[in-house]
Task: structure prediction
Amino acid sequence: MEPSPFTANKNLPPQPENTAIAEQAFSYCLTDLANQLLELQPELEDIEKSGHELIQRHNLVGMPFNKAQTVFFAGIAQRLLLLRRSDTPDNASQYQAEMCFIDDAVTMLEVSSLEDSNDETERAREIYDRYTDRDLTERVKAFIDGDFFDPVKHNLPPDHQEIPYDLHVLDIGFDIDHPAWDFYDFDDAEKRRLADQAQRFDSETQKFASLCPAWAEPVGDKYILAINNPLALKMLADPASDEAMVVLHEFAHAQTCEFNLDLIGGTVEERAADVIAGTEHYPDIERFMDVDLYIVTGHSLTALIRKFAGHKDPDNFWAATAEKFGLQQTLELGLATTGTFIEANNNPTQTRIHNHIGGLDGIIRRAYYKNCQDPARKMEMDKRMMPHTQWLANLIVVEPNIYEAYKQYYGDEGMHFMLDLLAERALEQIARGV
Result:
């Protein structure tokens, strides 16, 4: 097993004199959080001690511990406590794998709490400015200043104040072999020029701009809404195109940024952007939250997203999530993502975490089998499965080819556990002629 970045590079001896302020901050915030999360109260002191151990072990002298960070750090500390209480020997592979996960989770949270320096912000702005097509940016700005973003604005709270952003239409395209070129009309020379520009941009920014047509990114005190050249031209030519809806989705990102703590919460933020923009760019995440997760928990994460979207309140959103779903499930919801994201990001730490918890499917599998141990919970879960079983049975009978494509799509994303359970029940129902 590959060691975590902490184990490999940061295995410093405990330095309590340097971490005392961070330990005090965590203790204070944890005690405050326990007033809302009742599951903390019986083992508050033990979780606090585990948290202090992790603070010293990772030398977290700069962790601010706002409420959202405290939710995740408390979940990690609780995970360490549960591991220590288990009967797994500390030299066993399962123990080592769980410790690696704990270290990786702390690293993700620590990196997510860092702020860019002024120099890094200025450099980012300079690169964006250098690649910006001024004329095309002005044309797109004139277009979107009309009513293009109204669907997003209508789904935000009445008192929402628009988060400032700068629009940059970049003189870049996709990677030369990207299938997205099939949806655009460019001659070979221009396609090659824009692809080369995208590669240069990626090498300067360490991004993957050559793989996506638009994105929203915080830079300093503003968001940058970036659109590549092909998408901008398509958007101006056909505002109702599926490609143009990407820009609506990315604008929603900029206005619902409270769900994302940089490397944590990305899956929730993608669902929030789809909900607020009225788009369906991530049907896999939608299915995970609105079908699979609802079946095993009885709670709607999408409903929580709608409640908090646009209120710029990450602290209360993640605390409310932990209140509904529990600390361990919330920790995994913040860290887990789809197979497509893992492949695209190519982040070793995220990949290890994904593999250890089994992605989104792993969350569902653990919750399902836990419910099966309690007859009352299993009965309620079975009731929630019934309408989805009926829908799937109808699909299998009426549109078998669509069912096969549906199953293939979610299987490719690593989301087959609940679908397989529902399909098994649906086939039994069909066989009985129900």
Observations:
- Strands lie at 165-170, 214-219, 222-228.
- The CA atoms of residues 53 and 281 lie 41 Å apart.
- The two ends are 49 Å apart (CA to CA).
